[in-house]
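Re: How this chain folds, sequence and tokenised backbone to follow

Filed under: protein folding, tokenised backbone structure, sequence and structure records.

Contents: The amino acid chain and a row of whole-number tokens, matched residue for residue.

Body of memo: The sequence and its backbone structure tokens, given next.
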Amino acid sequence: MKSAFQIVDEVRRGATTAAAELATCLDAVRARNEELNVFLYVDEEGAAAAASRVDGILASGGDGGALAGVPIAIKDNMCQRGIPTTCSSKILEGWRPPYNATVLDRLLAAGAVPVGKTNLDEFAMGSSTENSAFGPTRNPLDPSRVPGGSSGGSAAAVAAGMTPLALGSDTGGSIRQPAALCGLVGVKPTYGLVSRYGLIAFASSLDQIGPFAKTVRDAAMLLEVIAGHDPMDSTSLPEQSPSLVAHVGDGVAGKRVGVVRELIEGADQDVVDAVDRATRVLADAGATLVELSIPELRLGLSAYYLIAPAEASSNLARYDGVRFGLRVNAEDVSAMNEATRTAGFGAEVKRRIMLGTYALSAGYYDAYYGQALKVRTQMIDAFRRAYREVDLLIGATAPSVAFEFGSKTSNPMSMYLSDVFTIPTNLAGEAALSVPFGTGEAGLPVGVQLLGPGRSEGLLLAGARVLEIADGRP
């Protein structure tokens, strides 16, 4: 699969067409989708129309847009008009939104070609894509292992060469962790940088849409297109999309990099070794290393698994069998609500709804949810103090390489620990990314995480590019 940058260049020069690139992509989907279960829905007709539109614009002298002719996969929790959007849940099976998410409109305006909707953990609740109501997605690098989650389908689409780009959503690491497990670049943008309008909510104060790509430059291209203020999203930052592609090659000379012990504690040795090597690469590139401890990060997992389920309990109350989605008839409204949710929600979603409802209930609100919010504030303050000393932080993305199917499903806490290094950034609302750097067990990729303050995506991408080059991926 060509890079997105290469496709745009060739399509604009007339060396290829958007239609031809789409055909190559669809061939790759047909070759492996049955094996890997990446796409829940492939929109061949809509994709062909989008590609034809780009080719027509170019034929009439236009440039086709920043992503002219680039096929892209969309996580199936983002609304696309008339296209089944399920969140990998039976409760939304067959639902077709009457509107587009803002990111979809921006992709189409930039000449991208949306190919279809990718599998995920139900309502984005999971770290392995084993929680989908429509079956798990397999890691293209080793089908006996998970691709990570919750955006496992989007990560697998890019890793399998089905599309050069994909969109995921990151609530507690759901872009960065699968990016690490599939050997990709995955960016969790600053909260509010990318519109959430049309993203089906899991935890509204944590969710953020971001890119998957095989290269840092491709990730920067996609993020530039989808970022920027949206009046339809009340949490959208009131500013234009930042310039990112132009700064990918800026390097890290003169920057201060915080090496955070809490961001590697408990990780497998091959992951720790990769982070150590990456740290030395940044130092060799002119960065100054600063040893840091941020003990508040150890509280992130506990705070997250009160705040996120509490918000999920509120957001998922709309699935009541009345307005849209599944309806299981019963003798009265209360029984119908119960029967619909019992049949429609999977075990992990039910677990989190119950946990969140309990944390919000009278008598427990202050003890659980209120305390978690205080911990979140402490974490925000801790990050703020750290960024007075350094420009960015480095650590592991995930504690291990891709793990085998079923190895963590019997122990929810073991699964939750897959996101122990990524959750703090979501709680703070700041920026982070994962970049592949070296390999670990069974030759599988290791992800190194770079973290920065809000609106630091340009610096993080520049740092990731330094690591990308050192890892032998020009």
